[in-house]
Write a structure and sequence with these properties.
Oligomer: heterodimer
Radius of gyration of chain A: 21 Å
Structural class of chain B: mainly alpha
Number of strands of chain B: 0
Number of helices of chain A: 4
Number of helices of chain B: 13
Strand content of chain A: under 5%
Shape of chain A: flat
Distance between the termini of chain B: 38 Å
Order of helices and strands of chain B: HHHHHHHHHHHHH
Number of strands of chain A: 0
Helix content of chain A: over 70%
Structural class of chain A: mainly alpha
Largest interface: A-B, 68 and 94 residues
Shape of chain B: globular
Number of domains of chain B: 2
Distance between the termini of chain A: 37 Å
Largest sheet of chain A: none
């Protein structure tokens, strides 16, 4: 351990409590008998698709398009997943085959 | 019950691969930092956060203060504050299970809650609970195994974590097909890309979220008129 037992436990506890806080915040503020404001209801409806789009970019944040292989493995694999899913609409097939394609690219091709 | 559990398990398979691999990676790094599998078990049980647990390793090795640890956690997990909004109504009917469902609300579990709806005769509460517990078990297993076996893995698993990216892409396509309005997804994607270019990979998430929320509020009248 790089630091003391007590210090380690303290940091882990702070991270655990703060993580729970962020996950509970929406329920504490709007979960009781209080009426959810219309602007919050609106955000609850339009935010999920926006957040998913952000998370897709988040997954790809490590890609560097300026150096070889220019994020080609990621771009091709993401397109494969999307096309497969539009075509067959089978969650496991799109994710499974997409992942195999990506693993092939990073292990064998590039 | 068995039918719901089986259904929940099948839906969580992509997360199974993603979590086992990410957990393994975390466990190996955590062990290297000087924390054994018992620590890995308790961290994955109590913190239960993917990217945040990796940052936790740097907090520990750097001997961070309580305030610094709190700030980092609030910033990195800021997005979770919004996840609850779309689940308030569904969680209301879950009684005391709500406290655990909230604890287990990771990116992936949230995504599955959005994607997977109960089939006829299934309890929504049980389905969400099974999905949450299964995902949590995968994560704990991955983290503990990583700390235990280290680098002794029989085949090359490089790239298997792409399952997580693929999961988000699939959800993106699903939501795109289902909703008539594509502006929210476009706004989110553009804000993320611009923020990534401006703030870099480590810091882009909070500004991207703030910009997205502001823009969605700005276009509110426009979008409510259309729907």
């Amino acid at each position: 351990m790089p630091i003391s037992f007590g210090h380690s436990v303290m940091i882990i506890a702070v991270v655990a409590v703060c993580t729970y806080f962020t996950r509970a915040a929406a329920f504490v503020l709007f979960g009781g008998k209080r009426e959810v404001p219309s602007s919050v209801k609106y955000l609850g409806k339009v935010l999920p698709p926006a957040i998913i789009a952000i998370l897709v970019i988040y997954c790809l944040k490590g890609v560097n398009p300026t150096v070889f292989p220019y994020g080609l493995a990621e771009i091709i694999s993401v397109i494969c997943v999307a096309v497969l899913h539009i075509w067959k609409r089978n969650n496991l097939l799109s994710i499974g085959l997409g992942t195999v394609i990506y693993m092939f690219f990073v292990q064998v091709v590039f | 019950m068995k039918k719901t559990l089986k259904y929940a398990f099948i839906q969580t398979i992509p997360v199974l691969f993603g979590y086992l691999f990410m957990g393994l990676a975390f466990g190996i790094l955590f062990e290297k930092a000087g924390y054994n599998f018992i620590w890995a078990f308790f961290v994955s049980l109590t913190c239960y956060a993917g990217s945040m647990q990796f940052v936790l390793i740097t907090l520990l090795t750097g001997g961070a203060s309580a305030i610094h640890s709190a700030f980092m956690t609030l910033m990195i997990n800021f997005r979770h504050m919004f996840y609850g909004l779309s689940l308030i109504e569904r969680f209301k009917k879950t009684g005391k299970s709500k406290f655990y469902l909230i604890h287990a609300l990771t990116d992936e579990t949230y995504s599955l809650h959005c994607l997977v709806k109960p089939k006829e005769g299934m309890s929504d509460k049980k389905l969400m609970l099974y999905i949450s517990v299964l995902d949590h078990i995968y994560w704990i297993t991955g983290c503990v195994m990583g700390a235990l076996i280290g680098q002794i893995i029989p085949f090359d698993t490089t790239g298997i974590d792409f399952a997580m990216t693929a999961l988000f892409v699939v959800i993106f396509v699903e939501q795109w097909k289902e909703s008539k309005q594509h502006l929210p997804a476009i706004i989110g994607g553009l804000c993320a890309i611009i923020s990534l270019l401006v703030f870099g990979a480590d810091n882009f998430l909070p500004p991207a979220l703030v910009a997205t929320v502001l823009m969605l509020l700005f276009y509110r009248a426009n979008m409510e008129k259309q729907s």
